[in-house]
Every structure is written in structure tokens, then in C-alpha cells.
Design a protein that fits this description.
563 residues; 5-stranded mixed sheet; alpha+beta
């Protein structure tokens, strides 16, 4: 029998399309604040947004007579007729976001002297409020009546990082708006009004700004502008920041156009902040309730414009001046950075500190094998050679081994890190005579905070050194100084995205993936011997944790048959 679903069920079904996780709710609420003309927006969350999401803005607010209507489905002040869909200039327009949020949470709205409370989309209280300007919205107990959906959420630090990524994208598109973001009463992001350059610096870091080149191009009535990196940067998953009429979007066609422009210059993972302006009638954002997807009436024209814009910027990189950051970057670190003492190392000397770096933890690569288990394979000949700066060849008994140096080192580091994390011990670390500074992208700040104990166990010793900048005072003993920053960022990226349920195994994998020597790295005879010895000392040296073969073994008899 066919029956009409009740409104409560319809609203929860619709909410599943619009609000997938806490970051979706933050995106919709911040976009409403921007549409209301806010110039200051404060966002605070608890437990990754699961317990609380609070948005405070100084926008025009909600009319007292409309506060109950605001949580009804398809109730909006931004559309009047169907033709308006093809000339949208606001972030929101469907009238589904607030309704969806209200249906799966306990929602409080205060604006223009009125307070309204909703539970599961039902009004439970309406009265006076002391808030007379702007709007304050509190989303409590998100998914309280949809526990199955809550089970699919990640841990608090990952959800907080996803919220921050959403805020960063909205902040880059609205440099004239002050943004502030706190998670569990800790300030993670604060960006004052300013130029696009200073906003990019706040969001992505000063080191990124220094390598950006300006993009300016127009064809087919499509204006493309922004910035692209001139070379590869730290990190390995640089998703482009794409904006259409100041609306953050992701479009595979545009991403492909950017990457194709880089193809002649090698295998790069570029950073790109690209803005597109085009006639309103040439695109449609009414494709998905979450408004992430966009369709263009002329795909080929958009692809060509973006590709030519980036290609032209790269081709003229020598003549284009780098962004001037002398007056654009934030000169003083906010007080919350200076006060973060959890990471601070109190004393420092040119020689290793016995408290921070015990003597038995300062070792070289050649002595690391002493920490491993007893070999179960006969020790190979000490003579090794390297082929193509990627493979180690040695003799073992009556056979020849050809070892993939990257995979071998990855397995060694994984086993060592897993053992240390499970036992609560620290890996060997080396103190740096001249500490290195590393900029951590803002979106990884929650992950860094959540992983601070594990990072110390793995051999990294950090202390705050400004906005999103940390000073590396100690690094894992096996790690080369030049790649330490990249390895740390890679570890945080993997920790954010990994689906591994075992926390120890997950962190050990992230550490090994990002710290292992890469293919194409020239090794000394001593380093090759250490890797071969350490590898064959493992209980299972045959494959990586992902099942990749580590070496090939060819007997003397097999070699004879080849001839």
C-alpha cells in the first residue's frame, strides 16, 4: 500500500542529503550569515560539532515574525519565482538547510530580541532575548534522533578539521569578513579583514604565499583570476580551492584543467586558488541540495579558460612578481599561540638534553638494527650495490636479492613504530643543532593537537613559533633534516584521512608512509647495509602492510638457466 510519509520522516530524509556531518551544518549556517551581510562571524564547536555548533554574526538578523518560518522546508527570503534560479547571487536559495538542521538537532535561534527553541524541528519555546543585533544560532546534540548517522562520523579531531577546512574555503572567498573559529574553547583560526593575499597567508601559510604566482585571464566571457604555486609544495594532496562568483565549489573539470596546465612541467601537486566570474545564466548551482555541484552550459569554454589562465601564469612565472608579503602577513602571533605551553620545551642546549633526549635514544641509522628482533634469515653478504637509486642488490646464501629500498624502509619503520606505540615507548630521536621551522596548514591544527603524544613517541619534538608555525627541535633518528617537515605534514594528512580502525596501526602506517626514504634517493654503503640487515631481521620481511612485494630472490641455479 502506498502512503504519504509524515513530515518528520520527510525532513529527516531531506536532512540526510543536506547535512552529512557537522561541517555541512557549519557551511550552511555560515553561508546564511554571509547572505545576511555579516562582517564578523564567530564559530565555536564542542566534540567536533557533535555536541555543539554555535554561530554568532553581526548580520541583518531574522525578523521576529519570520523566526518560526525559518525552520520550515522551502522557506527562504532569497527566491520568489523559478526564473530566479538562473540569476542567483546568494549562497543559499533552496530553503532546506535550517529545516534540515532543526529536524536532527536541538536548535536555538536568537535574533532581533526574540529567542526560539526547537527540538526535532518542533517549536518548544519562544520568548524574549537580550540579543538585539545579528543572529546567534546554537545547534545542540546533532543527530540525537538519527544515531545511525552519528555512528558514521569520525573522531572529534577529524570532524573539527573538516569544519576548519570548510571555514577556510569560505574565508578565502570573503576576505572582507572577520572569521574566528574555536574548538573545545581553543582558538584554531582567526583571520582579520584584509586583502586576498593576507587571507591566503592566514589560511594556507606564509611559505605558500611566497611561491604563488598571479593568474589573470579572460576568454569566452569567462574571467579567471587568483593564484597558483610555481612548484610542488609540502604535502601530497593539494586539492584546488575553486570559487564561482565567490561561492566555494569543487568541479572535476576545472581541477583537470589546472593539472593539465602543469603537465609539461613535471609531476606536481599544485596549490591553486582560482576564482571564476561569468554570466549568471551560463551555470546552474541547483544540482544537489548541498550545492557542491555546478553545471556549466559551456564545459569546453570553462575548461579552456582555466587551462589557458594557469598555463599563461606558469609560462610567465619569471616575469610575474611574487606576491609581496612584507605588509600583508600577520606580524604578531595571537596570544593563544604564545600561551599554548603544552608543546613547549623549557630548556635547550646545543648538546642533547638528558631529560628530553636520553643518551640511549640518540642513535644513527647504522645502529637502529639493535632495536629489532633476532634474525630468522641468514645474514647476507655485507657487499651491497644500488641500481637506479631505487633498488639494493646483494648476495644472500646461494641467491641474489633485489630489494625495493622504499618499501623495505617503510616496513622497517612500520614495525618499529607499531612496537613503540603499543608499548608506550619512544622511538630514537636526534636533537637538531639548528632547529627547523615548519608551517602546518590551518586545517591540520586539530589533528596536530590530538596527535601530540603520538608525535612525540615517534621522535618529533615541537614547540609553537607563531601562527600555524612550529619549531622542530628533534626529529626521528633515521630521518633526514630536509624531509622532516614534509614527513610531519604527511603524517598529519594521513591521520586525518585514514580509515584504519586500530589507532596504533593507523599512526604507525602514517609514520612509515611519510618517513621512509623515497625511490630515487642515493644511499651510502653503510645505509644500504643497515636497511638490508634490518629488513631480514623482521619476522615477516616479504611484504609491506598493504601487501606489496618488497624483494625478489633469484637462486644461482635460476641465474644459470637464464644463460
Amino acid at each position: 500500500m502506498i502512503q504519504v510519509l509524515p513530515d518528520s520522516v520527510i525532513n529527516q530524509i531531506a536532512a540526510g542529503e543536506v547535512i552529512e556531518r557537522p561541517s555541512s551544518a557549519v557551511k550552511e549556517l555560515v553561508e546564511n550569515s554571509l547572505d545576511a551581510g555579516a562582517t564578523q562571524i564567530k564559530i565555536s564547536v564542542r566534540k567536533g560539532g557533535k555536541d555543539l555548533i554555535k554561530i554568532i554574526d553581526n548580520g541583518s538578523g531574522i525578523d521576529p515574525d519570520d523566526i518560526e518560518k525559518s525552520v520550515l522546508r522551502h522557506a527562504t527570503s532569497k527566491l520568489r519565482e523559478a526564473s530566479d534560479l538562473f540569476k542567483l547571487s546568494t549562497n543559499g536559495f533552496r530553503g532546506e538547510a535550517l529545516s534540515s538542521i532543526a529536524s536532527i538537532s536541538k536548535l536555538d535561534i536568537e535574533s532581533n530580541g526574540i529567542r526560539a527553541e526547537f527540538e526535532g524541528g518542533v517549536l518548544t519555546y519562544k520568548g524574549d532575548s537580550a540579543i538585539t543585533t545579528g543572529t546567534t544560532i546554537a545547534v545542540n546534540d546533532l543527530f540525537f534522533n538519527a544515531p545511525v548517522r552519528a555512528d558514521f562520523l569520525k573522531n572529534d579531531s577529524v570532524e573539527s578539521s573538516r569544519i576548519l577546512d570548510c571555514i577556510v574555503r569560505l574565508a578565502m572567498a570573503n576576505e572582507n569578513v572577520r572569521f574566528e573559529y574555536r574548538a573545545d574553547n581553543r582558538m584554531l583560526f582567526c583571520s582579520e579583514k584584509g586583502s586576498l593575499q593576507s587571507r591566503i597567508s592566514d589560511c594556507l601559510g606564509a611559505s605558500v604565499v611566497r611561491i604563488l604566482k598571479e593568474v589573470q585571464w579572460e576568454e569566452f566571457g569567462i574571467k579567471v583570476w587568483g593564484f597558483v604555486s610555481s612548484s610542488d609544495t609540502e604535502g601530497k594532496r593539494n586539492i584546488p580551492y575553486i570559487f564561482l562568483q565567490k561561492r566555494p565549489i569543487y568541479n572535476a573539470l576545472i581541477a583537470k584543467a589546472i593539472n593539465q596546465a602543469y603537465a609539461p612541467y613535471g609531476d606536481h601537486s599544485p596549490i591553486a586558488v582560482i576564482f571564476l566570474d561569468m554570466p549568471l545564466e551560463t551555470f546552474d548551482v541547483n544540482v544537489h541540495p548541498a550545492k557542491r555541484e555546478v553545471r556549466f552550459s559551456r564545459d569546453s569554454a570553462v575548461f579552456s579558460a582555466v587551462n589557458h589562465a594557469v598555463h599563461n601564469a606558469l609560462q610567465n612565472a619569471i616575469s610575474y612578481p611574487s606576491i609581496s608579503i612584507v605588509n600583508e602577513l600577520r606580524e604578531k602571533a595571537p596570544s593563544y599561540v604564545a600561551d599554548n605551553r603544552e608543546w613547549r620545551v623549557e630548556s635547550y642546549s646545543a648538546k642533547p638534553s638528558s631529560e628530553l633526549f636520553p643518551d640511549d635514544r640518540i642513535v644513527s641509522l647504522s645502529t637502529l638494527n639493535s632495536q629489532l628482533s633476532t634474525p630468522n634469515i641468514s645474514t647476507p653478504s655485507p657487499d651491497c650495490m644500488q641500481i637506479g637509486k631505487s633498488y639494493i642488490v646483494c648476495e644472500q646464501g646461494q641467491s641474489m636479492l633485489i630489494i625495493d629500498q622504499h618499501r623495505a624502509h617503510k616496513l622497517i619503520l612500520f614495525e618499529r613504530a607499531l612496537q613503540a606505540l603499543q608499548s608506550g615507548e619512544n622511538l630514537a630521536s636526534q636533537e637538531l643543532l639548528f632547529p627547523e621551522n615548519v608551517e602546518i596548514p590551518a586545517v591540520l591544527s586539530p589533528i596536530l593537537d590530538a596527535q601530540k603524544d603520538e608525535i612525540k613517541k615517534l621522535g618529533f619534538y615541537l614547540e609553537p613559533f607563531g601562527v600555524n608555525t612550529w619549531r622542530l627541535r628533534g626529529i626521528p633518528a633515521h630521518l633526514r633534516i630536509g624531509v622532516a617537515g614534509k614527513a610531519l605534514i604527511g603524517f598529519l594528512e594521513d591521520a586525518r584521512e585514514s580509515r584504519e580502525s586500530d589507532l596504533f596501526r593507523k599512526n604507525a602506517l602514517c609514520f612509515a608512509n611519510n618517513s621512509a626514504i623515497s625511490s630515487g634517493t642515493e644511499l651510502s654503503a653503510q645505509e644500504m647495509k643497515a636497511i638490508v640487515s634490518d629488513l631480514l631481521s623482521l619476522q615477516n620481511p616479504y611484504e609491506t602492510p598493504k601487501g606489496e612485494a618488497i624483494f625478489m630472490k633469484m637462486s644461482i641455479e635460476d641465474i644459470k638457466r637464464k644463460f
